[in-house]
Structures are given as C-alpha cells and as structure tokens.
Predict the structure.
Amino acid sequence: MSSARQARGDARRPSLITTAALLFMAAFVGIGPYMVMFLNEDGTSLSRDHNSHGFVSPRHILRSHRRGAMRTGSSPSIDRMRAGYEQMAKSQSRDKTKLRHHKRVDSGGDETKRRRLREVETERRRNGYPLLPPSSHGEDSQAPPMMAREPVPVQIIPANSDGSSSSRLSSLLYEGIESSQRLVLASSPHENDVVWLVDLSRIMCNELVDEADSNMRKRIERHRQATREGRASPFGQPPPSLASPTRLTSALQWKIIIIDFSDFGYVAEDDVYYGIDDFTLDCIKPLSDLIGRRNVYFASREHVLGRNIQPISGGDEEQPFGPLGERIDYQRMHLIHFMMGKVRRINFGHRTLLEHCLEDELSKKMEVGVANNNPLDMASLDRPYDISHFWKVGNDDNHTSVIRDAVNDVVRSLGDIHAPDKGPSTMKTFADQFGEDLGSFKSINLTCPLAREMLQYKILVVAQKDKYEGHYRLMDALLSGALVMTDPMSSLPLFLEDRVNIVVYRSPAELKRLLKFYLLRDHEAERIEIGRKGREIALRHHSPAAWVERMVFGNWSTLMG
C-alpha cells in the first residue's frame, strides 16, 4: 500500500525540466507569485493542501509558510516569488479594509461620512475650489425640462389621504394648486409628466428615496406591459426594451422639487448631528442617480448663516441691528453637483384666507361709498390710526425676539410724542399682541378680525426673528395696502424694492425717523403709493398660486426663480 501511494506521489511530482520551464515562463509573463500556489521550493506538489476546487488560497499559503510547512530555501527566484506574493496579499488586505470602510459609510456611519466629506472639502479649499467631476449621467445642461402639457399634474409628497394640510408648507402647496390655472393635483404619483413637490418637514430622506425608487419600478413595469401588449407606452416613446430596472431613460423620469421650509435648514452651525453634507449623501445624490441630475431641484428658506440680533448696547438707538449674518454660498457645496440650477431661495407667500377677508372688508366699504371699485386701491382707504406692530414684549419664551421687542419700544414711544403738523393730538399707535397664537394655523378664526384691524392703520411695522430670516407677517401686511416697514434682509423677496413698494429700517433711530417722515401730510401721497405697489406685488407674485407656479415653471438658474 505504501509503495503504491509513493508511486502516485512520484507521478504527481514535476520533473526538474518542467519546473525550470514554468519558472522561466513566470519571469516573462509575470505569474511568478502565483507559482507558489502549486510548487514548494523543492519542487514537491502542494496538492495535499488544495481545497475542493483545486485552488490553494493565498491566506493558506502564507499560513503554511509561517508554520514551517514551506521551508525557506536559498533560491533567489523563489524568494522573489514569495516576497512578491506577500506584497500582493498585503495589498488585497488593504483593499478589503477599504471596502469594509466604504460599507460602513454606506450603512449610515454619520461620523465617517462627515469625516470623508470634510477631507474632500479641505482638499477643494486648498485647490481653490475646483469643480467636482461631472455627474455620471453626463447631463450638464442648466435648462429646466419643459412641461409637456398644462395643466401640469402635481403630487405633494408625502400626500395626505384626505388632501388636508398638516404643515405651513403643505397648506401653501394645496392652496396654490387649487387656485392655479396651470396646475392640477395629480391623481397618482405615477402619472406621466407629474411633478413631485416634497415637503421635507414631513418625510425622511430614506423614505423619499425609497418612494422614488418604487415609483420608477412601477413606471418601468407599466412601460414593459404596454410594449408586450403592443400598446403605446404611457410615457411617450422610450426604447421598446430596457436593459434592467436600474438602467433608465429620460422618458421615464420625472421632476422632483425638494422644499425645506423650516426656520433652520441644514447649513446652520449647530447642525452637529445632521448637516448639509449628510443631506446631500442621503437625499440629493441618490435621487440624482435614480432620475438624473436635471430632474432634481432644491429650495430652502435658509440662505443666511450667522444671523443673531443682539440687544442695543448702551441705549444707542443709532446702532444698527446685527449681526445680520452672511449669505450662504451653496455653489461651493457638494450638493450643487447632483441637482439642477441653484438652490432656490423661498419666502412665505400670503395666506388665501386673509386675502378673502380683506376683500370682504373692502366690499363692505364699497357698499357704503368709502372705497372705489379698484381692489388694488385698498391703500387709499381712510385709515383712522397711524402705526401698528402686532407684537407683545416678552411674548417669546425662547428669547429670540430682541429686534421685535426693540420695535415695540419705538412704536410705543411714538404714541406719546406730539406731532406738530397733526394738531394737538398725538400719534395713534398699537404695539401689542392681537389675539392669542396669532398667525398659527390654529388661529384661523382670528384671520378676519385681524384683516379688519389691519385696515385701520396707515403704517404696519414688521420684524423678523433674531436668528433666521422670513416670516408670514411680511406678505400679510403688504396685502393690506398699508405702507409696510421691515427690518433688513440679505435680499428682499422677489420684486420688492426699498422705498418703492416697501420701506426698510436698520436701527431704532432710523425707524423713528421713517415713521415720522411718512406720517407727515406732505408725504401722504408717497406713503399711499408705496402701500399700493406693495399690495400689487403681494397679490400678483406672492399668492399661493404664483408661489407654486414659480416652483414648477420658474427659472432655476436664478436665486428666486
């Protein structure tokens, strides 16, 4: 038995000539390191260590060498082969480590994602912010896709089963679609030419991406079924066959507009746990990979960083309000390479209910002959009182209304100042809270009483919160036809211009001077004209319908569309 086993071993043992030939070939074709898989230094076979597929794993060979099964010979060629193979094995080990690292990143390791993006951002800063490589789908056009038909079907994501609104943005979207002649609420998110308007306050990124992926698969299936049945595809004329569910055509894609309507977005300095780069990795880039860069849009209220109004020091009323912060340069951030156009700046539109209440009040005045038939001429109504600022000092538990409290002090002080050109009476001012929870969607019963109150004043003063820009009070005040004064913004909402259709004050002292100036009889016509133009801008460009239509049809290469 032993002699037979020895014979089989001798048969498997390569001859010296064969061994030399193999080594010579390895020197030319670069397979030297792999020869260790089959030969020992003394030419004996390693067949006893083969696995079931006749292959010796690299790790097994190295482990055998450490056990002493592979004796260290004096042959230089064998030593070079072993050294080369050990280098190859180390390289494979490093690659596996990198692969595990990337898997951890993809699985949601927030700190790892942030570290990786910080490294990329540091390198970009060092190189003067060079452009990142173009998107893999090769779409560099900045022109937004044209709408194939009107009215365009619009789907609000996430959709409420009863069509009701559950946030400030959703209310604005539903009102806008309902009152628009160019838009219609989609019957299904899978419709052809549908546009998704995403309320980011009501859906997580992973949920949005999953819903978009599911929608794409349903579209592909509808297209394939129509092709099998010999019918025209519901999505126009894409190719009759698709390579795979992940291989898409432009005909099956649709437009997704993501809207962040929160007071604080993803760029704020306190976004420690989830910042703009996390949002890019979790939301913008996956959608770009799925439906193409030219179909992904992003709009946000957050366009200023570092705004934090401080109390006036030393009682110096000439001191400007500040710091007002700096504009966020989204063009220097990663997300811009996975979306279309610019990050749109959005502001509040006016509320439809308030518009109806104001029109009802105007109709009542027309019936008694104190107003003409021009709805834009609400500014020329006889207004018995002078100034109003609907805010109560100490009304903010979070202590983020320094500027509103300062404005209240100014308006209250003017109520006790004699106005020489108005005779012996003083200015009639109001600086307090009107009702409870004014402006929230729980206070709709106060909207019409507020409309009546707003029509009593010649000038309405509004102010933003200390740490962020934008509020509903601005457009509501403009809608009343009164002259509206506001604190400074990094950029006024679309078509608003200082001293043309609105007035901007920058300090308590300047606010006092402006209020006195526009209440003089010599400047009454100018005050009325500014109020009239402000109401016209609010009606034509900041209604819910105009607001939503600008999202769908607007120019995304500009900041405000």
In short: Residues 261 and 508 are 30 Å apart (CA to CA). Residues 76-106 form the longest helix (31 residues). The mean pLDDT is 74. The domain at 352-542 is CATH 3.40.50 (Rossmann fold).
